[in-house]
Design a protein that fits this description.
single chain, 232 residues, alpha/beta, TIM Barrel, 8 helices, 8 strands, globular, binds iron/sulfur cluster, rSAM
């Protein structure tokens, strides 16, 4: 497993908990609006942090930090992820997994082994537009559907979230997502934020008021939707 970033203190990444965040390199998607272009496209060029260094720091912070957020890139690509998380659990940490949902078997195995306490899964778009938004042609939705259904039924704490991009999403996507994920627990919309680190430049965000329209569409489908990470 390749750790390429370590945020030693975060109030934001793990809802309700003081935590740390680990960034793993590599991803099987190529979302053009991705904020971690370096981690996704060329992880080998990013700084590398030894597992032992991370675990030693977390051992010192036992009782102060409560949770560890494992993000990417896409963490579920790593076969040794369960082994690494076992070390975090041995230190007493809650573990949150951020995932694009493309490896349902890994999500299932982690939860059934008691290794994850919270999952944040990206819902990139409506099923019909997924391949456009993730930058991968002829993408099969089977794994994404399986992960979403599993999270909605397995009993783990979870959220779904969508980074909303003006050029990539429209009202019809949220009507379709509402039909698909009807009955899900929590759903957050996040406005796209431009930065120097995106895979493809030139995208824009919707306004808060425009995002509220999408939230309303989801709420009409019985989804507890909200907006996160935008200044009003
Ligand atoms: S946004 Fe997430 S899923 Fe998409 S390319 Fe970046 S790391 Fe991968």
């Amino acid at each position: 497993m390749k750790i390429h970033g370590f945020n030693k203190l975060t109030l934001l990444d793990y809802p309700g908990h003081l935590g740390a965040t680990l960034f793993l390199g590599g991803c099987n998607f190529r979302c053009p609006f991705c904020q971690n272009a370096g981690l996704v496209l060329n992880p080998e060029a990013e700084p590398f942090i030894e597992d032992t260094e991370v675990l030693a720091y977390l051992k010192k912070r036992q009782g102060i930090l409560e949770g560890v957020c494992v993000t990417g890139g896409e963490p579920t690509l790593f076969k040794d992820l369960p082994l690494f998380i076992e070390n975090l659990k041995a230190l007493g940490y809650l573990v949150k997994l951020d995932t694009n949902g493309s490896h349902p078997e890994m999500i299932r195995s982690l939860f059934e082994s008691g290794l994850i306490d919270y999952v944040a899964m990206d819902i990139k778009s409506s099923p019909e537009n997924y391949d456009k938004v993730i930058g991968c042609r002829n993408f099969s939705m089977d794994a994404i559907m399986e992960s979403a259904t599993y999270l909605m039924n397995c009993g783990v704490d979870y959220e779904f979230r969508t980074t909303v991009v003006k050029e990539l999403h429209s009202e019809s996507d949220f009507y379709r997502i509402g039909e698909w994920l009807h009955g899900c627990r929590q759903y957050f919309l996040q406005a796209y934020k431009d930065s120097e680190n995106v895979i493809q430049a030139g995208f824009h965000s919707y306004s808060y008021e425009e995002l509220e329209v999408f939230v309303q569409i989801l709420k009409e489908q019985g989804i507890d939707a909200g907006i996160r990470g935008i200044d009003v």
